[in-house]
Design a protein that fits this description.
single chain; mainly alpha; 4 helices; Biogenesis of lysosome-related organelles complex 1 subunit 5; Bloc1s5; coiled coil
Amino acid sequence: MISQVGRELYKVPHRILDHRVFVNGEIDTFLDNFELKRNDSEVETLFQVTEIVGSLKYDLSERCIALGNQRLTELSTAVNNLLNDVETLLEKAKVERKPSVELQEARRAREQRKAEFLSNLQHNYKRIDNSFEEKEEEIAELYSDLQLKLNINK
């Protein structure tokens, strides 16, 4: 008997702290009440929304494809026309035009000024070279005179 009492006392904390049966019963009751009150209207609404979205998806995708094809052909023709216009514009731009009379005269004047500048530059180079040669000769004469005066042999 004492052993039986010991076993029962051992089971007491387990019985007191084990709420699984109670919690499962409460959950089942809550779900039954919730489903009855709701009357599955949310599930029906969800299915209706899914059907509407599915039908819109197929209808709109077909309409989008049709409109896309139509607009793409229009855009393709517009782009081709634009490309042709650009090509004609480039061809017109490539045509060489004769420069105006004023431009030709200005070019000639610049070329003449350039030629004068170059001839003046060459003349100045020759003057510098001549001046250098003269100074070189003067210095050579000066040194030869110094050598004679000082009697220095080469």
